[in-house]
Specification:
Blueprint lengths: L1 E10 L3 H8 L12 E6 L8 E6 L2 E11 L3 E8 L2 E11 L5 E11 L2 H5 L1 H12 L2 H10 L2
Antiparallel strand pairs: 1-7, 2-3, 3-4, 4-5, 5-6, 6-7
Amino acid sequence: MTRTLSVEEEIQRPADEVWERLTDWDNASKWMPGVESMAADGETTTGTKLAFRARGGERSSAIVHCDSGTSIVLRSVQGGVTADYRYEVLDIDGRSTRVTLVADCHIEGLWLRLVSPLIRIAIRSTDGKQLKLLKAMIEGA
């Protein structure tokens, strides 16, 4: 996998509240650009599948790692593109929280490898906004 995106935000809320809002899949469309709706097939834990609608199509993701309250990795596979989105939640002082998003991608197939720089630019452009939008939603801006 190749590192595609790494961003962080400080959110002025306790870590447990940030985690709860981060993993509230019904409201993911409020802070995940392009996502129209999302639903989980169970509790937020390793192995849970997420179904979502994005850019007019039905898609899926899986939770491939979950350390409840601190980190979660969502894996999406679309054609020859596999993307892992790792979210980490770190308590700063009981009132504020640092959230980090790291996205790693693996691209297979000659055509997709040729356009992989454009795919990575699109991911950075779109998903690079996620944590700013999450912060705005949580802080009520």
